[in-house]
Amino acid sequence: MPATLIQHPFMSQGALGDCNADALVGAMLEYELGLADVQEAHGALPEGTHQALAKHLHGHAFDLDAIASGIASGGNAAIPFVKQGRAALPAELKRYWHQGATSQDVVDSALMLLLKPRLASIDGLLQRCRSAAIVLMQAHDETVMVGRTLMQQALPITFGVKVAHWALGLEQARRRLLPLAESGLPVQFGGAVGVHSGWDDLGLDFMDALAARLGLAAPVLPWHTDRQPIHALATALDAVAGAAEKVALDVALLTQTEIGEVAEPGGEGMGESSSMPHKRNPVRCALIRGAARQVHGHATVILNATAQPLERGLGEWHAEWAPLIDSTLLVEGALEQLAVLLEGLEVHPDAMRRNLEITGGAIMAEPVSRLLVPIVGQDAAKRISAEAAETARRQGLSYAEVLKAHSEVKGRVEVEVLEETASPASYIGSSKAQVTRAIAWLKNI
Fold first, then answer.
1. Which of 128, 198, 232, 315 has a CA 20 to 30 Å removed from the CA of 430?
2. Which ranges carry the Adenylosuccinate lyase C-terminal domain (predicted)?
3. pLDDT digits over 290-339, tens only?
4. Residue-averaged pLDDT of the chain
5. Is the dihedral of CA 216, 218, 222, 224 positive or negative?
């Protein structure tokens, strides 16, 4: 597959280098040497064993192609990796390599080691997004714009409150992922059937000490077919992807030529078309949404692998690896784009005002109708407010001017009251208060 052209552009480019085949082998080696260190500290291996193993294997050139080929016969990368590691050791050390562990212990733990720094990076990006969103919220808490439902104009809101909802979605997802990023990725150590065969109660001591040694969480029990940790991680990543996708979708819709209320940050070649020089496509939004859609698909694979048979999965465990890593890299890549998008988002209040008036004031028909009901009755109020909006639209007049001149309204409502009621800025409800409330919650870290 031409991954560098059709898959990797949606991912974090820096993270790709940290999660390649060499990195996985390095994580498996870290696990094995950490296990030996813990076992030696508990008196289960002769003194100096860990140092001797590290001396022979640190810097050893593992044959990645041979490991890849070996997966076809063993089913996972740990088996050929362990064989190569043992072959590189002198005879007196071979029996101390990979003691008490099984291949799933190695692969699960190596994946957790790979993903832990990625989650820290994702959290940092979410904090960048939060900071950028707060700046936008504060700048535009009174910038009135069209609120749209079912893709149609509905009633006025402020751009600040729209951003507030974006920020809350992202922060809620962040707080869901944060416990996993800080201490929730567990080590795996259980041996062949998850009960530390041959080590008795000492196996649990090894597991807890190994978690501390590797900077991972100590689980209650080995979790070979208890995939709740993977389920939690996959769904938390999917929540972040969904929150990012919401922002990208809204921004993309608002950048449409006929709307033009916002624009993506510019840059050399950004948004260019292969054939139409005039276009400025919302490419960052496209990359964010493309990444998020893939994450949603990967989450489905992982969710369908949650129930695994007996003491070792048969294909379910194997199906988790690529979706889990890809989801993490895709989320990180999407957030890299989103942080730049929010930090440089161009907001066009003049276009927002223009679009509020595009229907001739019909967007204010509801409050005008409510004002007129006590004066002319329910049916007449609805009819007048609609008639005035249509006249304003056709004749290019302001809604308030048409209403003031309407034969059934003229002289019956104070001009100032009518003008205020027909003004979108007078009908933004709790928008400003919501921004204040949202900022307070976002800053309560």
1. 128
2. 360-439
3. 999 999 999 999 999 999 999 999 999 999 999 999 999 999 999 999 99
4. 94
5. negative
Q: For residue 43, is it left (φ>0), alpha (ψ between -120 and 50) or beta?
A: left
Q: What is the mean pLDDT of residues 56-78?
A: 96
User: What percent of the chain is modeled with pLDDT above 70?
Assistant: 97
Q: Which of 69, 273, 426, 430 is catalytic?
A: 273
Q: Are 103 and 321 in contact (CB under 8 A)?
A: no
Q: Catalytic annotation on 273?
A: yes
Average pLDDT over residues 63-76: 95
Residues 6+ apart with CB under 8 A from 120: 181
3-state secondary structure of 155: strand
Residue 354 pLDDT: 95
On the question of pLDDT at 130 being above 50, the answer is yes
Tokens encoding 93: 């050390």
Q: What stretches of 305-430 show up as alpha helix (H) in DSSP?
A: 316-344, 349-357, 365-376, 378-395, 399-405, 415-421
90: buried, middle or exposed (CB in 10 Å: 19+, 13-18, 0-12)? exposed
**Rounded (5°) CA angle 263-335-124:** 125
Model pLDDT, residue 279 = 52
276 pLDDT exceeds 60? Answer: no
Averaged pLDDT for residues 371-400? 90
- Name the 3-class secondary structure at 347: strand
**Choosing from 148, 176, 312, 383, which is the catalytic residue?**
312
Residue with tokens 């690896």: 321
The predicted model scores a pTM of 0.94
CB 311 within 8 A of CB 101: no
Buried b (16+ CB within 10 A) or exposed e, 106-137: bbbbbbbbbbbebbebbbebbebbbebbbebb
d(C-alpha 163, C-alpha 156), whole Å: 15
* DSSP 3-state of 265: coil
Q: How many CB atoms lie within 10 A of CB 37?
A: 20
Domains along the sequence of the chain with CATH: 3-352 (1.20.200.10), 362-421 (no CATH)
Size of the chain, expressed as the number of residues it contains: 445
